[in-house]
Design a protein that fits this description.
Layout: H1 2-13, H2 16-24, H3 27-42, H4 47-52, H5 62-69, H6 74-83, H7 89-98, H8 104-122, H9 128-154, H10 178-184, H11 190-196, H12 203-216, H13 220-240, H14 246-270, H15 275-280
């Protein structure tokens, strides 16, 4: 409820161009909700689980998302998205007309690429707000690409299972160049990939992630640390740019992290975890 209120509060506070750019922050949440529907329908997940996975920050009204989720098939869901005029519906209709074999991973990639192309079109000026938003989305693209890269490298037959060249699975928007990512996809181990990126702005976080990965063998350690980088970057924006989009970017990030920590504490207590373990796994803003 607290997260849902953020969207309303920010829309009431900001006006005109500032209000429009603030809503760009939530485009990602819309797509996460749509991807939850795609996964749910393809993998036949119960409706209540799909609905519970909707982002509370999504700007698409929950009743519309719920109606799309009630579809009996992915085809029906795409048709409903067009009826409700969801922005990505035209792209999904074109994709459906050319693909009989509908896998969740492929349509999610279509959604991701559409999203970043739309961001590129929306942020077509040189204002400070647009610069900050471009950096925000650039970090998001790097997180997606790094996840894709590491999954391919870790799997012994990862590259052979790809339908087409590795490059087609990458988002051309991040600060990590496509050519560098393609080159790294030929490495034999996750450790080599991580170490080769220590010289980037993500180096500090990737070092921590690699240490944890060597203990747990979980690729999620890298995604977690990339999100920590994003959180720390956003949290500093209000002080650095007090009269810009940096204020809502930082506020939303801190609020999401606050709710994440409260949920973690509650689940930790419910699961009987030791208090020290719960405290150690809180995400703290530097």
């Amino acid at each position: 409820m607290e997260l849902e209120q953020i969207v309303d509060d920010l829309n009431e506070f900001y006006q005109e161009d500032a209000k429009e750019k603030v809503n760009y922050i939530f485009l990602r949440e819309d797509l996460e909700s749509l991807k939850a529907i795609v996964r749910g329908l393809i993998h036949e997940i119960p409706l209540d689980e799909i609905i519970n996975s909707f982002s509370p920050l999504s700007s698409i009204p929950r009743p519309i998302l719920t109606q799309i989720a009630k579809s009996k098939s992915l085809d029906e869901a795409i048709s409903k998205s067009a009826i409700f005029e969801v922005p990505i519906s035209e792209t999904l209709l074109k994709w459906r007309s050319k693909h009989e074999d509908q896998s969740s991973s492929e349509i999610e990639l279509v959604i991701e690429k559409w999203y970043f192309q739309r961001i590129r079109e929306l942020l077509n000026d040189s204002s400070q707000d647009s610069e900050l938003l471009r950096e925000f989305y650039s970090i998001e693209a790097d997180i997606i690409n790094l996840n894709t890269l590491l999954r391919v490298v870790e799997s012994e037959d990862g590259r052979s299972n790809l339908r087409g060249d590795f490059i087609k699975y990458l988002i051309d928007y991040g600060s990590l160049s496509i050519s560098r990512l393609v080159r790294l996809s030929k490495e034999k181990t996750v450790e080599k990939v991580a170490r080769s990126l220590f010289t980037t702005k993500y180096g500090k976080n990737l070092r921590k992630a690699l240490d944890c990965y060597q203990d747990t063998s979980q690729l999620s350690e890298f995604e977690n640390q990339m999100h920590v980088y994003m959180l720390d970057w956003q949290a500093k924006l209000p002080k650095l740019f007090p009269l810009s989009i940096g204020v809502p970017l930082g506020y939303v990030a801190r609020k999401k992290n606050e709710v994440r920590n409260i949920r973690w504490i509650a689940k930790g207590i419910d699961s009987g975890f030791e208090p020290l373990f719960i405290r150690e796994n809180l995400q703290r803003v530097e």
